[in-house]
Amino acid sequence: MQTAEEATTCACPLRALVEKQGFAVLDGGLATELEALGADLTSKLWSATKLLDDPHLIKAVHRSYYEAGADVAITCSYQASFQGFASIGVDETRATELLQLSVRMAAEARDEFWSDHQRLTPATTTASDSCGTAPLPCRRRRLRPLVAASVGSYGAFLADGSEYKGNYGMTIEQLMDWHRPRLRALAATGADLVACETVPCLAEARALVLLLNEDDGTACYSCLYAWISVSCADGAHLASGEALAELAPAVAAADAGGRVAALGVNCTAPRHAEAAVRALRAAVAALAEPLPQPQQQQQRQQQQQRRQRLVIAYPNAGEQWDAAARAWVEGTGEAHRFGELAARWHAAGAAAVGGCCRVGPDAVAAVRAALEQQHGCGDDSD
Ligand SMILES: [Zn+2]
Questions:
Q1: Which residues are known binding-site members for Zn(2+)?
Q2: Residues that constitute the known binding site
Q3: Which one, out of 54, 111, 284, 327, has a CA that is 20 to 30 A from the CA of 274?
Q4: CA angle 184-357-265, nearest 5°?
Q5: Which UniProt keywords apply (predicted)?
């Protein structure tokens, strides 16, 4: 296992992007857009079925989110697992290939988007562009986007809505054993980040963080960064009912190598997101060391800000998921308000904002416009 000092020798791509741009835009729901393009996702493997029969549709969806303004695409591996694939007769070798394919589709979409973007705006799209107050049109300030390999919770494999309850009755060791093969397969792909998502309980968050810190004997883990994002029951509690304020200390205690760059909330109703972001920010800040002598305070504050984990938010549209019917309950979704809401979540402390289920490219474009405006980009985006 590396020490925290060794781990910091390679920079976290998400933090680097946030520091240059002032924010990061995450993508929206992958399955939502696949369905909008006509995909049938009614099987137990949900969006992962497209890895088997139509990977290029996945790539097209990633491209549409990059075009809409996403700095980070999250791969189609959320509900892909060795056990899930085995249940439909896919062996381990093929399952590994499919997990790697999920990252490759996002990486190809990113590379093609970025190549076209640079060609269309050749003068100003180097990675060193900053999004400070320089009077450049905002669209020309895009930075090369990232690919985050999705690791769905154990509940996502169960496909019974358990990721919104967290009552697995499994030990941390059992959860580690279940997650280990997929995490290793995804870590070997060279994805920029690992996105541990829709985690409903502290035990699973701990299990994932311990796994991220395992030494698997290869170089894959030497520069691995991840975020841990939880599903919440309200603005102060995980889906399991445990206090959201306990997430940051639990992660810090397990993250010996400094692998976890960000903590977040996702697939949670938008009405809970602002309070959840504030709770995460407060808990992260509370872990900061006490300040030393006054003359060193400013320097130490800057160092602490760099060490503190980022907070991210990518809520769903606010509709209810009927696990028995495997369908969204039509209601009062809030995807149409994501621009306005994103501005509030960012102001509350979320460095990266996007959407989850039922949030599409239009909402992601609104998020980008809102965050650019908050950073002084105004209306000069074309
Ligand atoms: Zn979701």
A1: 267, 356-357
A2: 267, 356-357
A3: 327
A4: 65
A5: Metal-binding, Methyltransferase, Transferase, Zinc
Ligand 1 center to residue 198 CA distance, Å? 7
Say whether pLDDT at 140 is over 60. no
CA of 162 to the centre of ligand 1 (A): 13
Integer Cα distance of 359 and 334 in angstroms: 9
User: Which of 81, 238, 91 has the alpha carbon at shortest distance from 165?
Assistant: 238
Query: Pairing mode, if any, of strands 260-266 and 226-230?
Result: parallel
Q: What is the 3-state secondary structure (H, E, C) of 202-230?
A: HHHHHHHHHHHCCCCCCHHHHHCCEEEEE
Per-residue pLDDT reduced to its tens digit, 122-135 = 654 444 444 444 44
Q: Report how far residue 303's alpha carbon sits from residue 56's, in angstroms, rounded to the nearest whole number.
A: 43
How remote is the CA of residue 266 from the centroid of ligand 1, in Å? 7
- Residue 245: inside a domain: yes
Query: Measured between alpha carbons, how far is residue 110 from residues 60, 61, 69, 87, 146 in Å?
Result: 10, 11, 12, 31, 7
Q: Is the distance from CB of 93 to CB of 47 less than 8 angstroms? A: no
Q: Is residue 269 part of a domain?
A: yes
Which CATH number characterizes residue 354's domain? 3.20.20.330
What is the strand order of the sheet 352-353 is part of?
A: 24-25, 352-353, 310-314, 260-266, 226-230, 193-199, 146-152, 72-74
> pLDDT tens digits, residue range 280-295?
999 999 997 665 566 5
Q: What is the pTM of this model?
A: 0.89
Domain count, the chain: 1
Q: How far is the CA of 73 from the centre of ligand 1 (A)?
A: 14
Please report whether residue 113 resides in a domain.
yes
User: Regarding beta strands 352-353 and 24-25, do their DSSP bridges make them parallel or antiparallel, or are they unpaired?
Assistant: parallel
In the structure encoding, which two tokens stand for residue 245, read together?
Answer: 């304020």
Give a yes or no: residue 379 inside a domain: no
- Give me ligand 1 centre to Cα 31, in Å: 9
Is the separation of the CB atoms in 66 and 113 below 8 Å?
Answer: yes
**Domain range enclosing 348:** 4-374
Residue with tokens 């074309």: 382
